[in-house]
Amino acid sequence: MTERPSNIKMERGGDCANVANSRARRPDGQSMPLVLVISSYVAASRVGGGIAPYVLGPLKVDPVHVPTTLFGRHPGWGKPGGEAVPADTMQDMLDGIEANGLFAMADAVLTGYFVTPDQVEVAARAIDAVRAARGAGREPLVLVDPVMGDADKGLFVREETARAQADLLVPRASLVGCNHWEFQRLAGRAEKLEDVIELARDSGRNWLVSSIPFRNRVANVLYSDGEAYAVAHDIVEGSVPKGTGDLFHLSIVGHRVNGATLKQGLHRAIWTVETVLGFAKTWKAPELPLAACSLFLADLKESGFVIPIDAD
User: Fold this and answer.
1) The predicted structure's pLDDT at residue 301
2) Within-domain flag for 4
3) How far is the C-alpha of 161 from the C-alpha of 115, rounded, in Å?
C-alpha cells in the first residue's frame, strides 16, 4: 500500500485524499498556485491547453484544463481526428470544478483556442464566476489569448468565433496576449513598434503583443497600467514547431502567479521559448520537446539576448 506523501498538507480538514480538493503546499511551504486553462487538447501535438502540465508543472503550478477540442494531432499535420468539445460538456466540467471549490482557488485564468461562439460564451461565464468566487481584493490574472490567426495564414477560425472572442473575452481580460496580426485585427493598423504602443495606450486595455517586426529582430510589447515596456530578441531561424505562443503565454502566467512581475515574466517566457526551441533544433524534434525539457524549465537560465527598447 502506497503511503500518502508527507510533504502534501491540506488546508481543509476532513477526509480529502485528493490535492485538487484543497490548496496543496510546496516543499518550500508556499501555497501551490492554481491556473484554470480553457483551450484545446491535442493528444499527439504539444500545442494548446494540453501542454499546461508540461509548462506549469515544473514551476510547481497546478493546472486545471477544460478542453475546447479533443484532437489527435495538430491540423497542420493533416486531418486532426477528433472533434470540438460541445459547449454543454465544457459547462458541465466547469460546474464540477466549481463545485469542488476550485474557482475560489484559481490564481489565474488563461483562455486560448475556441471553435464555436457558444464555447466562448461558456468561457466568459467562467471568468465571471472565478472573479465572483475569489471576491474583492483577490483579483485573478485573466490572460486572454484571442487565437484567431497570424501573418502567414490570416484568419484561421470562424469569423463568428473571432467576433465572440473580441466581444466577450477581450473586455474581461486583465491582460490580452496576442500576436501582432491579432492585435491589429482587434485594435487597428499598427505596422511599427511605436504604432503598437500608441494604439495600446489609446485602447484602455493591458496588452502583451508578440511577433512585432523590429529591425533584424522580433519585438514584444507589454502595456500594463499605463506603462509600456518593449523588448527585442533574435529571430529563430529555420522551421519552428507549433505551440510556441501557447508555451509563451503559459510561461508568463506560471511565473506571474509565482510572484514575478509581468516584466520578469516576459523575460522568463522568452528564455523558456528559446530554451525549448534550442533543444528542438538540436534534436530535430517535429514537436516541442517539453517533457525532455522539464528540468530546464524548473531551473530556468538566461538564454540568448533580450534587449529592452525605449518605449517612450
Assistant:
1) 81
2) no
3) 7
* Residue at grid coordinates 465572483: 132
pLDDT grade for 305, boundaries at 50, 70 and 90: low
Dump pLDDT digits (tens) for 74-126. 998 999 999 999 999 999 999 999 999 999 999 999 999 999 999 999 999 99
pTM: 0.90
Q: Give the residue numbers spanning the domain of 52.
A: 31-309
Q: Is 25 exposed, middle or buried (0-12, 13-18, 19+ CB in 10 A)?
A: middle
Q: Give the pLDDT band of residue 22 (cuts 50, 70, 90).
A: low
Question: Which of the two residues, 2 and 167, has the higher pLDDT score?
Answer: 167
Residues 107 and 303: their CA atoms lie apart, in Å, by 28
User: For residue 30, what is its C-alpha cell?
Assistant: 508556499
Q: Is residue 236 part of a domain?
A: yes
Between 304 and 223, where is the model more confident? 223
Count how many domains the chain has. 1
Q: Give whole-number Cα distances, 150 to 134, 163, 193, 202, 234, in Å.
A: 34, 16, 17, 23, 19
Name the residue among 256, 261, 271, 267 with its Cα closest to residue 301: 271
Does 10 fall in a domain?
no
Residue owning grid cell 509581468:
262
φ, ψ dihedrals at 18, nearest 5°: -125, 120
Q: What CATH number does the domain containing 118 carry?
A: 3.40.1190.20
Rounded to 10°, the helix 117-134/87-99 angle is 10
Residue 98 lies in a domain: yes
31, 60 Cβ separation under 8 angstroms: no
